[in-house]
Amino acid sequence: MAKPSLKIIIANPRGFCAGVQRAIEIVEVALEKFGRPVYVRHEIVHNRFVVEGLEAKGAVFVDDLDEVPENIPVVFSAHGVPKSIPAEAERRNMFYVDATCPLVNKVHREAERHHKMGRHIIMIGHQGHPEVIGTLGQLPEGSITLVESAIDVASLDFDENQPLAFITQTTLSVDDTSEIVTALKQKFPQVSGPKKEDICYATTNRQEAVKAIARRCDRMLVIGAPNSSNSLRLVEVSERNGCPGRLLQRATEVDWEWLEGAETVGITAGASAPEVLVEELLEALRDRYDITMEYVTTSEENVKFKLPLSLLKEAG
Question: How far apart are the C-alpha atoms of 61 and 174, rounded to whole Å?
Answer without folding.
Answer: 31
